[in-house]
Amino acid sequence: MSTVIVVGSGVIGLSVCEALIQDGHGIILIDENVPGSQTSFGNAGLIADYANSPLANMDTLRKLPSLLSNKHSGVSLDIRDTHKLMHYGMKFVQAALSDNFARNQETLSKTLSLSLQAHIDQIDRLHLKDLVLENGCLHLYKNSPETEADLTEIVAQKKKFDIDCEFVSKETVHSLEPNVNLDGVTGGIFYPKTRSLLSPEKHAEALFRRLNLHSGFKYIDEAVLAFEQDGQSVWVKTNSQQIKGDELVLCAGIGTNQLLDTYGVQIPVVSERGYHIELDATELQINRPIGWQGKYFFATPMSDAIRLAGTTEFADRARKTRHQHHQLLEVWSKALFTQDAKTRSKWMGVRHSSPDGIPVISRLPSMQRVSVCFGHGHLGLTMAAFSGQFIKEMIRGNADKDLGKAYSLERF
Ligand SMILES: Cc1cc2nc3c(=O)[nH]c(=O)nc-3n(C[C@H](O)[C@H](O)[C@H](O)COP(=O)(O)OP(=O)(O)OC[C@H]3O[C@@H](n4cnc5c(N)ncnc54)[C@H](O)[C@@H]3O)c2cc1C
């Protein structure tokens, strides 16, 4: 079997390795940071089967100017990075046009359904059920313009894509989540099949531990500086060595752009930073992830804290943390719950977001032995196990052709 070099040990890279090991490939995983310690560390932990509506839609376009100009919205942009968003912005507008949106929604729905199953299979295969909460999730409509009729319509639309969900009244919200402050609540939508991780960190650690049990697996703790394809081989250069393989998969999150830049390959995947705060779980309990619609965040019960994660900041990954996002999460947590709880930690991480909401899982046209697997935006944890399986099928030469086209970097 061949040797595959994988760059990036976030949840995507780890899942790619795990899938390829099933096919007996030798794996060399390279990362300059501890596995799972970057974006994969701090997410909201949702396996988000419900999220089939790409952000690039007419409604977002209509709301965007007011969201960006309102410093309490949880959506912001660093003006110094506007020039880096041009290509992304153009493609975002294009993706929002109704025909394109419908096509992207179709692709995303199919991807999410496959992703949920791939996640379940991965958890079962690796015996990681202890890390998963299967209590569904609640989308809460609080202080928002939507009426009960609007929520019923959202449920009907989701059901068209076979997404399991139901409208829940204010009273049912209370019985599901007694610690939610019901002021201004219209109702909610309950998604019974949504799962969540009790610790994204422990999940990544467990994946990495399993990989280390295989004799064909090797981990190199260095930054990749460059790569090339030479005939039937690929070469990866780090500070101290040149590593040879048969295939290369770049799962370096937002760092993928930098690696591709050297070859003039520019993909409009941008840095969309997100934030979390963690609340002391001894002071407040919730039974499942609760998403406050309109505020762009989820409160997820984790093994030892309640994590409020979300918000959006279009800014280069190296910019200083914008603490205003943490402050907003703190204000919202006080409004969301009937009880206060102390903030025990704060975090910021970088989503790698594509304009159409569809990941980029594709071979490089100019180097057929090199693939990229990034652009998962808000759904990288959800799609990780599936992305691994898709890369495995690509290397076998069996990947679904329609999905392959939808994920291809040539769509840009
Ligand atoms: C606030 C927030 C909430 C989120 N909530 C959810 C959620 O509920 N559900 C969901 O599905 N998704 C969620 N996401 C998205 C999800 O976290 C990401 O899509 C996912 O973690 C991406 O994983 P990754 O492996 O691609 O990236 P990362 O975890 O960032 O891993 C990339 C790795 O590449 C390495 N790397 C980069 N460049 C190089 C180089 N040159 N050489 C060597 N290594 C390199 C980095 O060190 C890093 O370890 C959320 C994101 C945020 C920010």
Automatic annotation (TrEMBL):
Specify whether Oxidoreductase is a keyword of the entry: yes
Q: Where are the transmembrane segments?
A: none
Domain named FAD dependent oxidoreductase: residues: 4-393
Top-rank taxon, per record: Bacteria
Q: What keywords sit in the KW lines? A: Oxidoreductase
Entry-linked Pfam families: DAO
| Oxidoreductase as UniProt keyword | yes
Alphabetized PANTHER family for the sequence: GLYCINE OXIDASE, SARCOSINE DEHYDROGENASE-RELATED
Name recorded for this polypeptide: FAD-binding oxidoreductase
